[in-house]
Specification:
CATH topology of one domain: Jelly Rolls
CATH class of one domain: Mainly Beta
Oligomer: single chain
Order of helices and strands: HHEEEEEEEHHHHHHEEHEEEEEEEEEEE
Strand order of the largest sheet: 1-3-6-7-5-4-2
Largest sheet: 7 strands, mixed
Distance between the termini: 101 Å
CATH architecture of one domain: Sandwich
Length: 456
Amino acid sequence: MQNTERAAIEAGFDKLPTAATFKTRNIWYAIAGAAEINSYTATLFPTPTAYSKGMRVDLEVQNTNTGAVSFNANGLGAKQVVDATGTAFSSGGFPSGKIHRLIYDGTKFVADASVSTVTPGAATVTVDALASSVYASQAEAEAGTENTKIVTPLRVAQAITALGGGDMLAATYDPTNVAGDAFDQDNMVDGATNKNFTATEQTKLAGIETAATADQTAAEILTAVKTVDGTGSGLDADLLDGNEAAAFVPVSDFTADGDFLVGTGSGTYAAESGATARASLGVSIGLQTIFIPASAMVPAITSGPAVAQLESTTNKQNQIVLDFDGTAAEYAHFTATIPRSWNEGAVYYYVVWRSSATDTDSVAWFLQGAAMSDGDSTDPSWGTAVEVDDAAQSSATKVYVSGIPGLLTIGGTPAPDDIVAFRIYRDPTDVADTMTEDARLIGVVLFYNTNALRDD
């Protein structure tokens, strides 16, 4: 069927009234109460549930009005009745013994001037005068613009003809004279622009998978390839220098601490951690630790802390500590020969100490160093001091461990076999130092990096 003919038929059916239109176009007939004047009422059947725009009532009144007119159907509420010009009726304008056509416009009833008032029981009634307000004329159906009237099947056929629907040619669309073949694809013919699929084209369409597209992205293609990827797939992506993936150790096998691949002695390989290898060799490369106790330190001659020996009450634990004053800066010194495996770089440190009171004040510790090689002066310049702050924990008998501050750069030019002098001090004038009592140093922990397995 050509598209123009189908469109013409669809256009004709569009002109048929909807169910709602039939309802609003129903015409009720009612007789007002015998004693009613001006305010008329009636019971309609079928019973309307509400006033609807376009509803029609042929109302016969038994008493002529003497003033403005209203109508109340089925107790839905009184609505004003006006003439076709919208003017309220004056006395005698709404006579008894007549049937008045009322049309509801959404707010009031309007007496339809296009319908002649009919006298009940008259021998002749002109139907056209009544029907013209309900049913579309041929001209209205062909124009396709009237939206308030009913279109009959005859008017639909006239509208289709007027819109150029044309005829269905049996010789073209039903050559076998079988009604069921009229819409068979094989009986269709190509139009000027709309073409039918050939047998070859239909075969191609039948072979296309559901949801297939011609505009797949690279990501979509990759996803599809992955569904067939794997050993034996024949894809080059499965091989590396001719080897399958099983010939290689996955990265996930190397979990931590410098894992590396070692032979097992049986023709296979295994991942071994750096820690295991270092333990088996008895050597290590990386961060190393040295603890320097306060007993190994020398109080400075100028502004040095006092040396004290403390003993615990219960278990008689003894400690040598250096008591750094809470009012003026005091200094202590120690010297270390760091192993040859040291990389001569910056070091880290933290402080182990205790308080002489039971508060939560803070103390500011500082550490600096200077390297001395063979033939160097015994009075080298100190490197930049690095500060670490720590707070007491309301006890004079607890061990406190500070955090690790930033890198400490050694003064001078560190070299293998150097002696490195360190100076630790407390500065009570520092803004972070709020402790008024002595801070007792137990020792310092140094961290240094190595770059060799042995010191030879």
